[in-house]
Amino acid sequence: MRTVDLIIKKRDGGELEPDEIRRLVRGCVAGEIPDYQLAAWLMAVYFRGLSFAELGALTDAMARSGEVHDLSSIPAIKVDKHSTGGVGDKVSLVLAPLIASVGVPVPMVAGRGLGHTGGTLDKLESIPGFSVSLSTNQFRDQVARIGVAIVGQTQAFVPADRLMYALRDVTGTVESIPLIAASIMSKKIAAGIDALVMDVKTGNGAFMAREEDARQLARTLVAVGREVGLPVIALLTDMNQPLGRAVGNAIEIVETIETLKGNGPGDLLDVTLALGAEMLLLAGAAASMDKARDQLNACLRQGKALDKFAQMVEAQGGNPRIVEDLSLLNLHTANEEIVHADRDGFISAFNTRQVGVASMILGAGRETIKDTIDPTVGFLFEKKLGERVCTGDVLCRIYYRDIERMVRAREMLRNAIEISGRKPVPLPLIKARIDHNDLKSAPGG
Ligand code: URA
To answer: Which protein residue has the closest C-alpha to ligand 1 atom 1?
Structure first.
């Protein structure tokens, strides 16, 4: 079949054979299929969706389109966690060393922040000297030696996703659940893991704001896992306010270290423990959810997770003394501005996406992938949803360098925090758990 026939087949609602999908992916990476044909096929997928079999074939072909990490020499079940992205989401930074401290290896290939969401790599790079660029061998050796590594993608890693994502970005086809699932899962498979826990965020700061869309994405991710033989469990977690109190880069490393010392905010700890317990169960390292939680709490209490974090920092070129001396993160070089409450009441809503955009304007995030980040700027929220406030109370501290950026960010932040006379009903942090038993419907468009 010619490429145009594959486009027509999908356009008309047909199901492509695995071999036809492999040809499309190979042709894309080899530069043999022009962008306009690939874009047309992506748009056909956007409207027609993919069957589970098509999705499995697409994900597998994308995963094999470049360099694949082979971690089979590490004799343990290697588990990762991936989040669909949020504001103040530093769960990976706490969770990866925590799980490794229990003895379960965590090989994590993470991403950068874009738009209103932050990225694990940017946060780690706010630690002076920390490198997220390890070779395949260095990555494997570090996971074998200390049980954890967090790295970025090389140019050779899943090139099909890089090429397709660039096209999706300019053709209105990013918001397709099957294409998102194939994009995420192909990178997880190529990272060499044996099992995955997905944190699918939902709420006004999430990529999937509507819970039903998040649920459908979660089911699709679990289904892809089943198709390609990778066990996946997904939790739907709340993103209707920043997670924890810190939003930025170095400031989120501070909150990470505090959490590893047992002084973290409750919501961050709860999400971390819920995801972590799932990871231990998938790895066969705990007999029940309660036992998994006990193990995680013990590692936090005994300082093992903090030690593991310091080991990872040292292994990747940073100064492990940051866990004792937070001034090494240079946060004190930024200026501080305080946002006060202008009335009495309760914090009744956050426009979380707007908080993320404000942090980007401040310089903590990037609008385009080429923008540079200032690691020392960010926000510290003194009040969270449901807390009572009085006029003049500190709502948020802004750490900034450029006064014009700060003024714009402060205005957005003021509009993003709602104070009203009525205490809001608390929202559950973990909204659902989705595994293979929840797979009834097809992935759809
Ligand atoms: N994250 C990804 O990795 N891919 C997508 O398509 C969307 C979000």
So the answer is: 184
